[in-house]
DNA sequence: GTCTATACACTGATAGAC
DNA sequence: GTCTATCAGTGTATAGAC
């Protein structure tokens, strides 16, 4: 059977045409704008197609389904976030990993509100249940390392602590979305302080 | 123009027929089950109608729109939650209000997973933006009172603290939804301890 | 390889008969 | 109070033009 050519690296990823690359990028950009502005329901295939200047069916030529379009847009926004957070965490010392995680994540989401809404909408409306552990595990490891570096007794609370911090970050960012004047930097500082009291008692 | 009769109390609420009361209650119950089982999208008007033994149009006779059906079911589940939390908070002393809030809310949501998913789905899919302040303000007041009772210097952080706690509760409950073995009571204890360190330094 | 045209089943919603 | 009939809009599938 006929198959799409694969890249020279042979890593299994299909080699994309220039026009296809451009179209996909355009569709992702348009989708982020639409979802950020009108939410998941408001970003219909017809609306996406119209903004891109093509038809619904053409959109479904580049992506197998609407969920795939949204997923691609979601991953695009998400990769920018994790990239910045990873950089900040690596630049920080072992005992300051969690603080760098919190501050860089809150800061990034404040700087990019469209990406933020895109991520939230995709997370809450995508029925494909992503593993929740993927969300808290990286932070849990940072917390374990930081607690160890500070000489605290290693407890088994890292998971719950990470879940709490993650939920708190979501709430802070969400609040800023509704009240642009909300001081997220101060909120992040308070969260870091709260965690600091637990890590070095 | 013809208007529906209002109750003798004259509080503006329409007086409902017995059969209408029964139908609404049945539709609310059916909707909670469906939303909890299949999410917002899975609870179509046709599915609700079928489970209730009537047609789509009949459902829309009792409620003006699908959003109204879901909203009614949402409020039904929510009122049970706030009732239990309010009782627990009132039974606790002033300095233990936040702890009672956290433990009773987490406990209630663990005991009633169907209500929990109903509340989550309704919150995330209802575009009618409810005021976020309604979520954190009651807890913020409890925190202020408790901090005062413990002799802590009154800071202006009550809002952010309440937002953080609320987000943490959401994350804990959500985690329990995906992993039924997750120990939410221990998580609530940890959250209370974290807050306690801030309130009485 | 890229796209348009068309048709399909399903959604929430309305109008009017009984 | 509940029905049938109908509507515009949704995501999706297919055929075929270029």
How is this structure best described in words?
Two copies of one chain form a homodimer. With 201 residues, chain A is an all-alpha fold. Chain A has one domain: Tetracycline Repressor, domain 2, CATH 1.10.357.10. Helices cover 74% and strands 0% of the residues of chain A. The first copy, chain A, has nine helices and no strands. Chain A has helices at 18-42, 45-52, 56-62, 66-91, 97-111, 113-125, 133-149, 158-178, 184-199. In chain A, helix 1 (18-42) crosses helix 4 (66-91), helix 4 (66-91) packs across helix 6 and helix 8 (158-178) runs antiparallel to helix 9. The longest helix of chain A has 26 residues, at 66-91. The radius of gyration of chain A is 20 Å and the shape is elongated. The model of chain A has no long low-confidence stretch (mean pLDDT 92). Chain A binds a DNA duplex (18 and 18 nucleotides) through residues 17, 19-20, 23, 44-46, 54-58, 60-62, 65-67. Chains A, B: GO terms for molecular function: DNA-binding transcription factor activity; transcription cis-regulatory region binding. Chains A, B: Keywords: DNA-binding, Transcription, Transcription regulation. Chains A, B: It comes from Micromonospora phaseoli. Chains A, B: Pfam families: TetR_N. Chains A, B: Residues 21-81 form the HTH tetR-type domain.
